[in-house]
Design a protein that fits this description.
Blueprint: H1 7-19, E1 28-34, H2 35-41, E2 55-59, H3 68-73, E3 83-92, H4 95-98, H5 105-114, E4 119-128, E5 133-139, E6 148-151, H6 157-166
Antiparallel strand pairs: 1-2, 1-3, 3-4, 4-5, 5-6
InterPro entries: PPA1309-like (IPR047681)
């Protein structure tokens, strides 16, 4: 069963799971565990998860309130975890608006969120130990209709690099 080829589907699955909880959520971290291993270790999950899936996302405890980069830098996964995914809500601005933002990180988030061209989004980035990455971005609808979903592995290079660092031995 190819695992790397399934990462995009698993990333979409994580985004769908988080999206079911609505907007305005804290960042959520998931371990990506081989399904066969998970079923061996927790046989009570038989019938609750797809036994044919290569990997199963397993929600982790809430991340600390500290800086996300600091929190990720402190994570070390056990060998059984082949990858991880992080879902977080972000504020996006068009490139021309970003040029006017201050360098001060403390005020940056508040200014970006109140910018007239700001768009709220949820980003899910995933990484495997072999270096495979995937990203899904859900842009929050501005008209109450359907959210736009974009998928591309290079949406969040800094975040996927930080996730890969958590998987290094």
């Amino acid at each position: 069963m190819p695992i790397a080829g399934d990462l995009s589907a698993i990333t979409r699955e994580v985004e769908d799971f988080v999206a079911a909880g609505g907007w305005d959520q804290a960042p959520q971290l998931f371990a990506l565990v081989p399904t066969a291993h998970l079923l061996r270790e927790q046989p009570d999950l038989v019938g609750q998860i797809d036994p044919d899936a290569a990997l199963t996302p397993v929600a982790q405890e809430a991340l600390s309130d500290e800086d996300l980069g600091v929190a990720l830098a402190a994570i070390m996964w056990p060998e059984a975890v082949l990858g991880c995914a992080l879902a977080q809500e972000i504020v996006m601005l068009p490139p021309e608006a970003e040029a006017d933002l201050p360098d001060d990180a403390d005020s940056l988030e508040k200014i970006a969120a109140s910018h007239p061209q700001a768009r709220e989004a949820r980003l899910v980035a995933s990484a495997l130990r072999d270096g495979t990455i995937a990203c899904v971005l859900r842009l929050r609808s501005t008209d109450g209709e359907t959210d736009e979903v974009i998928e591309h592995k290079d949406l969040a290079p800094n975040l996927t690099a930080a996730l890969l660092d958590t998987l290094r031995d």
